[in-house]
Amino acid sequence: AQLTVRDALNSAIDEEMERDERVFILGEEVAQYDGAYKISRGLWKKYGDKRVIDTPITEMGFAGIATGAAMAGLRPICEFMTWNFSMQAIDHVINSAAKTFYMSAGMVNVPIVFRGPNGAAAGVAAQHSQCFGAWYSHCPGLKVIAPYSAEDAKGLLKAAIRDPDPVVCLENEIMYGTAFDVSDEVLSKDFILPIGKAKIERAGKHITLVAFSRAVATCLDAAKELSTIGIEAEVINLRSLRPLDFDTVMESVKKTNHLVSVEHGWPQSGVGAEIVSRMVEGPGFYHLDAPPVRVTGADIPMPYAKTLEDHSLPQGKDVVRVVKKLLNVQ
Amino acid sequence: LNTEATFDTKPFKLHKLEEGPATTVTLSRQDALKYYKDMQMIRRMETAAGNLYKEKIIRGFCHLYSGQEACCVGMRASMRSYDAVITAYRAHGWTYIMGVDAVGVLAELTGRSTGCARGKGGSMHMYVKNFYGGNGIVGAQQPLGAGIALALKYQGTDGVCLTLYGDGAANQGQLYEAMNMAQLWKLPVIFICENNGYGMGTSVDRASASTAYYTRGDYVPGIWVDGMDVLAVREATRFAIDHCATGKGPMVMEVVTYRYSGHSMSDPGTSYRSRDEIQEVRQTRDPITGFRERMLSTDLATADELKDIDQNVRQVIDDAVKRAKSDKEIGLDELTADIMSNPIDTRVRGVTAFDTLTHKRIGPAVNS
Q: Which residues constitute the signal peptide according to the record (chain B) (predicted)?
């Protein structure tokens, strides 16, 4: 069967709300409008005002209210219309949600999911085009997931809603409408993916490409092209940024001896910087035959004009170029 | 001795309310003795905390509640067992009144294993059932409290969340975001401004275009209360809980009080106010002295009884101080305890790539 990422997220929320009375969703336009990006479509009609709550445009306030509700025993799903607006509320994500369990010596855990579209959309300029993967995965006390496919979206979001700790779910608006082939298992109400486990999307032996979210598609495009010239790239979909499944990356590099990380976020202190650091500061260093390399978004605020925007984000051809360089292939 | 007595409180000021709490209040001897003991306990505990800080046994921040005791004691007196509280960083008195004993508070301040957060929270982060802290971010507790109220309502109880903040935090934007949603959704939350006159060293007049904090909820009804009178606080809280618990939505309560100490231990508290001002409050408005006089003048207690209580309190605090000094800090194995309630990957990086520590689970994780 085919399933879009949007429907996968929608059914994940629907199934978990059906399963657990404590689960509710709040955010801007989640109820009567059916969701700004239609992720919550149909939920208000099904569950009503109590469990599908439209908020005013006050991110700090409703993120705080959602976090307080989680401290007092509910299981909120707090939707940010996009993650860009979470900066208004980041204090509650970090200081209120992520740190309380530790500060209370294990008494008050905060079972909340913060979710929404992350990263660059199309033609929306600098304030609406930013990846928060590095920001949130920096912080102990949070779990951070970044689904790529419909299978990821459904399995990871359901796991996040059932998880007793705060989870940040970084979706991608451009992927919402993309349909993926999925098995019957994925469509089942019991389908859960483990947080903190990466997936090898494509096996290969010459080089390891590590990515999350939409950049997985960038890598798969590149891998396809590379295979035409005899280079078999292994593509790892991280799925989670915290905990980060570095074991899977390491196992792959032991085989390929080459590492490229690919992300749409900025380079400095990014997710790729973390992956490369972990590879070179430990035994991974000795498995490498060439320097590990990052492919990232360009180090600029996102411009509006199409050609400029296209050159701000990594494309498959950029990955191909880097791989050829590393493998010394013309 | 009398078994009860009747007193008049200062008139309450009302905002968007037809009627307010009763200004004639009845006090039983039993309650009187309890309030007196609790206020004395908090006063002595804070004095002990101040001394431990000066001895450099308490580290970091330490904000004392001395002068404000009638606020938490009066409010607690009207709370039901299932009502909740969240407050700001001046949390010691509240922690005690919500059920943590003096050892639990003082040993937390000294960072010892017998502290109520095992020494991991410190002065601003103490928790106990129905008490959600101690929050170190000025104003963050305001929407959190509204969210706790949302949960109480969602779960079908008539519980109320008392959400406290100072006059400084009364100007935070998120208070008004929280009030707006609380009023729209009729959340059972009392937004309580403990107005002690100063946000750090900035007096209310220099920080707030309107210092009538009980009116600043605009469409949210409000009450002004003499926060130095435990009975006035108790009555106003009873009134506010009734209002919230019967589905009428939130309420604002301004309790006017005073802090004797500086903002924190690093502030002598004398550059922005005069010693005379502090002295005058101590002599004319002290919440404990005033209450003691009322008890004695109405024969609710004898001077000897109150002296016995004072001695008992002193003993409890002295013993607690000894424990807070002699108990041990938690072991290094707990450095990586309870970061997550479900840690998934139990490896935690220490300060270098060569130090991999192991996550440990200890606490009860009440929301699992």
A: none
